[in-house]
Write a structure and sequence with these properties.
about 350 residues, alpha/beta, Aspartate Aminotransferase, domain 2, Aspartate Aminotransferase, domain 1, 2 domains, seven-stranded mixed beta sheet, three-stranded antiparallel beta sheet, about 35% helix, about 15% strand, globular
Length: about 350
């Protein structure tokens, strides 16, 4: 009899009740302010927040271009240089004027907020919004002194939607508007069906993939409230446990590959876009689905920063999150070693 294909690693989260705890032990960390808003998406939260500012929005050059383009329909966008590597932004390229807003980010969850604290003290009249989507509950997020903090939740937690917005300075916050986005229902259905598929049930993979893709399209930029499912699950989720296991898994795979681990998974840099794409295809052939953060189309909407676009062409992220067990981690490390033979591989983190 033919052998069963290896268990899929990565791609979208499936639903697994093992991530639930009691309401006394689970839920959001206690340091989060009581005054906070729970939106469907971080892009929607940003859109609701930025509507009151008259100037430009300064965006990191290594960032999700889909979100940047969405926000560009609301206010003018200018890019400043911020590249992977943990060295922080190039503040010499961040040229602000009255009425502007700055979007900072904890890129791959491995940045230090100290330089931003210094910059904010030197520019007290410029609102800074920190994006902590790669590690929503980091020590930087906890100690933030920014005007506002936004964090997508579905990047690191098994939820169909959800994004938090709060103000470390106690400023007024916009509230979600309109009904929940229908995309969350589709994403939840995809999560449930993927869980059944992983358990060996006769669920066609393309069925839940179509639901996931359609749900993501419908969610894009939603400024509505998070779904009832996300609101109900958040107080019960083992958030600390998910974060801890993900960090330990990242460290183990990084050590096996001789690279550094970031706060958000493990990032690898190849010598060229061709080698990166070949490695992506090889990993997918092994049932390992590594995302790219983030592609930049030089013929479309992009940062106009050649260094950022070049790195985006050559980097990938290994999906070493809380779902991985010891066998999965060994598979990932062995597959990367096999797929990258004869090529140079390093980590930017």
């Amino acid at each position: 009899m033919p052998l069963d294909p290896p268990r899929e690693i990565g791609s979208e989260f499936h639903w697994d009740p093992a991530v639930l705890l009691s309401d006394e032990r689970g839920g959001l960390p206690g340091w989060l302010p009581e005054r906070r808003s729970l939106f469907a998406t971080a892009a929607g939260a940003l859109s609701a927040l930025l509507g009151s500012f008259p100037g430009r929005l300064h965006v990191p050059s290594y960032f999700c271009m889909g979100v940047a383009e969405f926000l560009s329909h609301q206010m003018p966008i200018v890019f400043y240089r911020h590249l992977p590597g943990g060295t922080g932004p190039d503040f010499g390229t961040l040229r602000v004027r009255d009425g502007d807003v700055v979007l900072a980010q904890n890129l791959f969850g491995c940045e230090d907020g100290g330089p931003w604290d210094d910059w904010m003290r030197a520019h007290p009249g410029v609102p800074v919004v920190e994006d902590h989507s790669h590690d929503p509950f980091s020590s930087w997020a906890c100690a933030s002194t920014a005007s506002y903090v936004v964090a997508s939740l579905r990047k690191t937690l098994p939820l169909p939607d959800g994004a938090l917005l709060w103000s470390p300075r106690g400023l007024d916050l916009p509230e979600p508007s309109g009904p929940p986005a229908p995309g969350a229902d589709l994403k939840l259905a995809a999560m449930l069906l993927k869980g059944a598929w992983l358990d060996g049930r006769p669920v066609p993979k393309d069925h839940f993939r179509r639901l996931q893709t359609a749900g993501e399209r419908q969610l894009l930029g939603s400024a509505g409230p998070a779904s009832a499912v996300t609101a109900a699950l958040l107080p019960l989720l083992d958030i600390a446990g998910v974060r801890s296991v993900s960090a330990l898994n990242s460290a183990e795979v990084a050590a096996a590959l001789g690279v550094k681990a970031g706060g958000f998974r493990v990032q690898l840099m190849c010598r060229s876009s061709v080698e990166r794409d070949e490695l992506l295809r090889f990993l997918a052939g092994q049932g390992i689905y590594a995302p790219v953060h983030w592609r930049q189309d030089r013929d479309g909407f992009w940062s106009a920063d050649p260094a950022a676009a070049d790195l985006a062409d050559r980097m990938l992220t290994l999906p070493v999150d809380h779902r991985c067990g010891p066998g999965d981690l060994r598979r990932i490390a062995e597959a990367v070693k096999s797929g990258s033979k004869g090529s140079s591989m390093s980590s930017m983190i």
